[in-house]
């Protein structure tokens, strides 16, 4: 890779890490235990991939990522809420996340539900109440809020989660007949598109909207986000099977819950081929976007990082 | 009352009832069972008080309520999500809501959590993606989204819910010492302000913001909303004790859960005096707002209706 993507990501993630708790502190009058529960999950770390993608997407059109840091943090808050709710006993019932006890294990189920609700709601507080450079006027901020809501709600992520529930138990029984495998792949494509790819797509789309990108560049970046998001989820499925559980900091619940995954339907090798094809398609889309070279190289390197996590 | 408030409210609520499922249908690609779960709770009826308050507040400044129907429906979606999550087993564990089984009783706990999440998220989809008259530009819509997020998140409603959790068990033990009663009243004021009053305040504030109201009128309406919202919750506390359970369509869970309420702390008569004082303060605030007489009379009559529910 032409750039040191690991150091690039570490440095930029540090800015997000620092800003997130400050945004929670800025929510005046918040109930202290609720604020603690929100901060607990926000501070759990992670690569901050979505904020970084948004910043690089924005920089393609000439701005500086730090100028849209509130929007990047808003997206990370939505991502974090989705993890908190996904881990709940009624959902995946996970005890560990990034090597630490999940929110409901520390704060109880009721407060974990509420912390997720508040992270989601206050993503819109942070997005709509923050200051941006003069070029980022109300129309662009409103457009970013629209993208976020559409990609995160029933047109997007939450429908992916609902389909994922429906898919539980799909693998019960000793063998998968060909027709059922085909139905499984179709359902899985819907799940991956919405559960994972939509929020990664939102990242690059919000960056483009905030930058006032031309429609054709917005479209190309949106496609890049979709293919990259699908690649991310296939890699995640593989990691759930072959990853080092300790290093991953989670407990391999997909296999335990007999969830529908690419690894379970296509085998690990088949899933790896699929991930590679998705990466190639993502990069082809990215190359169609004109603009600054450095942020495009950063997006390309981050895509390689997403693909390479399991190698 | 000078106007037939019951017919006024019925007619205007019908427009909201008709629009809400159409907005869910408009969420393209939504997972069918998720959409059904969202629609189930949206169609459960209710007075649509918050949308009606928003419409009347908007009309004070010369517009027509139907022009901001998407914003009114967005607020009702946020209110509905809060009921769905509040009824969950980990929260109030209610089996009935408005005389029908609660969402999780019909769709299961996981889908009820997701339906709540989607109603909340897609409130912002509906608010930010809809068309408004030309006078309602992006700056006003963005302002309405900001009010909604601030009043519904950790600065508002969700903190009220979190404090409500904390207050559970407050009444355990045979007697309440004076110091504990005083602490209880302080905690209760916080709960009522955020759990209930903030979203009713949001209703009149969003109407004013969308209408481009002058700052001093916005402030007066905001105060009206706060006092009315507090009055609403005190009346609700009384209803939970003295109301006809069948007519009310819920199961008196406050008393069952030994929750902190005005009725439990001040007695029913004390709570009634408090409700009356709050109504009077709300109406005084409303009188300070200039503008069209008919929508102001409607707000006044709705306030009387809120107060009178338990008489």
Care to describe what's here?
2 copies of one chain form a homodimer. By secondary structure, chain A is mainly alpha-helical. Chain A has a single domain, classed as Farnesyl Diphosphate Synthase. Chain A has helices at residues 5-25, 32-42, 49-59, 69-86, 103-107, 109-129, 138-152, 157-167, 178-210, 215-242, 245-248, 253-256, 262-287, 293-308, and strands spanning 96-97, 100-101. In chain A, strands 1-2 form a two-stranded antiparallel ribbon. In chain A, a hairpin with a 2-residue loop joins β1 (96-97) and β2 (100-101). The longest helix of chain A has 33 residues, at 178-210. Chain A is globular and about 60 Å long.
Oligomeric state of the chains? Answer: homodimer
CATH superfamily of chain A: Farnesyl Diphosphate Synthase
In percent terms, what proportion of residues of chain A is strand?
under 5%
Q: What would you call the shape of chain A? A: globular
Percent helix range of chain A: over 70%
Largest sheet of chain A: 2 strands, antiparallel
| Average predicted confidence as pLDDT of chain A | 92
CATH class of chain A: Mainly Alpha
* Tally of structural domains of chain A: 1
Largest interface here, residues on each chain?
A-B, 54 and 54 residues
| N→C terminal distance of chain A | 15 Å
What is the SS-derived class of chain A? mainly alpha
DSSP, total strands of chain A: 2
Major beta sheet, strand line-up of chain A: 1-2
Radius of gyration of chain A: 19 Å
The CATH architecture name of chain A reads Orthogonal Bundle
User: What is the N-to-C succession of helices and strands of chain A?
Assistant: HHHHEEHHHHHHHHHH
User: What's the tally of helices of chain A?
Assistant: 14
Task: Give the low-confidence spans of chain A.
Answer: none
Q: What is the CATH topology classification name of chain A?
A: Farnesyl Diphosphate Synthase
């Amino acid at each position: 890779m032409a750039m040191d993507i690991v150091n690039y990501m570490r440095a930029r993630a540090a800015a997000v890490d620092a800003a997130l708790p400050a945004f929670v502190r800025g929510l005046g009058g918040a109930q202290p235990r609720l604020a603690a529960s929100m901060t607990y999950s926000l501070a759990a770390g992670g690569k901050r991939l979505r904020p970084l993608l948004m910043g690089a997407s924005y920089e393609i059109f000439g701005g500086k990522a730090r100028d849209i840091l509130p929007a990047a943090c808003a997206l990370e808050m939505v991502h974090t809420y989705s993890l908190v709710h996904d881990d709940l006993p009624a959902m995946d019932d996970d005890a560990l996340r990034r090597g630490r006890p999940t929110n409901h294990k520390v704060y109880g189920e009721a407060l974990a539900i509420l912390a997720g609700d508040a992270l989601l709601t206050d993503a819109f507080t942070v997005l709509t109440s923050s200051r941006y450079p003069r070029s980022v006027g109300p129309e662009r901020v409103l457009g970013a809020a629209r993208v976020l809501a559409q990609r995160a709600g029933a047109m997007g992520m939450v429908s992916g989660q609902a389909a994922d529930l429906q898919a539980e138990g799909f693998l019960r029984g000793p063998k998968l007949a060909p027709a059922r495998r085909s139905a499984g792949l179709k359902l899985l494509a819907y799940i991956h598109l919405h559960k994972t790819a939509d929020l990664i797509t939102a990242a690059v789309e919000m960056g483009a909207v905030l930058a006032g990108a031309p429609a054709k560049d917005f479209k190309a970046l949106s496609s890049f986000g979709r293919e990259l998001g699908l690649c991310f989820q296939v890699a995640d499925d593989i990691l759930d099977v072959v990853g080092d559980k300790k290093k991953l900091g989670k407990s391999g619940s997909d296999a335990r819950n007999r969830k529908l995954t690419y690894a379970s339907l296509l085998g690990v090798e088949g899933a790896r081929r699929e991930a590679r094809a998705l990466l190639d398609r993502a990069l082809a889309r990215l190359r169609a976007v004109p603009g600054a070279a450095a942020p495009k190289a950063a997006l390309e390197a981050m895509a390689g990082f997403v693909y390479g996590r399991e190698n």
